[in-house]
Structures are given as C-alpha cells and as structure tokens.
C-alpha cells in the first residue's frame, strides 16, 4: 500500500484496534491464570494489546467502520467492554470455586481466625483459601487450560459480532448458572472436610458424655487442626485433579465453544 493510502487507512485501523482492545483487554483482566490479581494490571493489559496485534488482521474484515458520531463510537466500545468483562467473568467464576472451597476448609479446620491478604476475594482471607487460589492459578497455567478461555474469547466474535446488542437476559442467566456451578464445585471440593468435621465433632460430643471431667476444648482445637491438615495433605493431589477436570468441562462450555 502506498504511503498516502496507508495514512488514509490509519483512522479505520485505529478504531478497529480500539474495538478489539475493548473486548480483549477487559477479558484479559479477569481470565484465569493470565488475569490473576497478583499479575500487575499493565502486564494484563499488555496481554490484551498482544492479542489485538495477533487478531486484528483476521478480524478486521468483520468489524464495523468508524462512525461519524462520537457517541456511537463510545457506545460500540462500551458494548465491547461489557462483552469482554462478561466472558472473562464467566471463566473467572470457575477458579473462584477453589478459593471458596479453601475458605470452607479453613472454617472446618478451625483456622478461620488466621487471616492473610487475599486479592482474589478482596480484603482478608484464610490461609487455606489463599493456598487454594494460588494452586488453581498454577494448575490452570501448568496444564494449559488457560488456552480454552482464550479460544472462547476469539470465537466469541462469531457468536457476538461487534455492534450487535448485548443479550442482557441471556447474559445474566449464564452468569447466574456459572455462579451456581462454581458454588456447587466448591462444596464438592470441600465435602471430605465437611465429613471429617462432622465425625470429629460427634466424637468430641460422645467424649463429653462419657467423660465430663475431660477438658474437651483443649483437646478439640489442636486435634481438629492436626487431623484437618493431615487430611488436606492426603487428599490435596486428588482434589487438584478433580478441580482440573471440572475446570476443563466448565471452560469447554463457555459461550462460543458450545
């Protein structure tokens, strides 16, 4: 292309790049593994820019021309940000199940008072919740599962073309279903600890009945913590495997891959 022609195309290319970055950059802030809160925001936005460079030649033909009205341009970019946050949020809810399971495990182990900063859930969280959050991020990156949400993001341009109205009803329903599935997964992951807590508390109740003179509290607290940590060390590999399988299934059901 001649330089004058290239200069004439620059405004359209810039607008197309802005449209792509609005969706891809918003999603990159939330994607599992790649969009973790521990990763600085400039790096996550850099990932979005890298995706724009890779995808612009392939997707430019399906993007609308730059409108003459500035309000229309802002509306298009705003819609793309909403779509990106929606897609990234659907994928993020899958990994939040591990953080919620860790919170439940801490409560059952008697470690709910030991709080640490938790960027995933915001504010302060439990040590096991933080451990499970980091384990989920490492698993997603090490197993290559992060590529599935990326593929869903790329293929979302066929499902939700740029400029099309966002289906708010279907989007809210999909988000609600993903949240319920995430909570169900968290409960399944924490189920062994729920059973262990029930058994321990029943045993302590029987001990109180049999030997009322025994100071059950001083036995219960360290015993519950030690038993819970031993159970955690025993089943953590299986728990991570179960999460990996569930995450793969959930990622494969993201919009655009169905």
Description:
This protein has 258 residues and is mainly alpha-helical. It has one domain. It is 76% helix and 2% strand. The chain has seven helices and two strands. It has helices at residues 3-28, 41-59, 70-109, 127-143, 147-159, 168-210, 216-252, and strands at 115-117, 124-126. Strands 1-2 form a two-stranded antiparallel sheet. Helix 1 (3-28) packs across helix 2 (41-59), helix 1 (3-28) runs parallel beside helix 3 and helix 6 (168-210) runs antiparallel to helix 7. The protein is elongated. The two termini are 39 Å apart. The relative contact order is 0.13. It is found in: Cell membrane. Keywords: Cell membrane, Cell projection, Cilium, Flagellum, Membrane, Transmembrane, Transmembrane helix. This is Flagellar biosynthetic protein FliR.
- Sequence of strands across the biggest β-sheet: 1-2
- Structurally, the number of domains stands at 1
Distance between the termini: 39 Å
Shape: elongated
What percent strand?
A: under 5%
Query: Mean pLDDT, as a whole number?
Result: 83
Low-pLDDT stretches are: none
What is the number of E strands? 2
Radius of gyration: 24 Å
């Amino acid at each position: 292309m001649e330089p004058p022609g290239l200069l004439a195309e620059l405004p359209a290319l810039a607008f197309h790049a802005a449209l792509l970055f609005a969706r891809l950059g918003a999603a990159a802030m939330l994607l599992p593994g790649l969009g973790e809160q521990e990763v600085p925001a400039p790096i996550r936005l850099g990932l979005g820019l890298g995706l724009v460079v890779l995808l612009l030649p392939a997707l430019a033909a399906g993007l609308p021309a730059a409108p003459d009205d500035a309000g229309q341009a802002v509306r298009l970019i705003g819609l793309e940000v909403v779509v990106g946050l929606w897609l990234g949020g659907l994928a993020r809810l899958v990994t939040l199940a591990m953080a919620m399971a860790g919170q439940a495990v801490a409560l059952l182990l008697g470690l709910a008072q030991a709080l640490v900063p938790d960027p995933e859930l915001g504010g302060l969280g439990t040590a096991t919740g933080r451990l499970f959050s980091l384990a989920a991020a490492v698993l997603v990156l090490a197993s290559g599962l992060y590529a599935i949400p990326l593929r869903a993001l790329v293929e979302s341009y066929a499902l939700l073309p740029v400029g099309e109205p966002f289906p708010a009803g279907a989007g809210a329903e999909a988000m609600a279903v993903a949240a319920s599935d995430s909570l169900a997964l968290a409960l399944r992951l924490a189920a062994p600890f729920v059973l262990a807590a029930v058994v321990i508390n029943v045993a302590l109740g029987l001990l109180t009945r049999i030997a009322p003179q025994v100071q059950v509290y001083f036995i219960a607290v360290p015993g519950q913590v030690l038993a819970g940590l031993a159970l955690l060390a025993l089943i953590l590999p299986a728990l991570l495997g179960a999460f990996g399988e569930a995450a793969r299934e959930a990622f494969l059901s993201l919009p655009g891959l169905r």
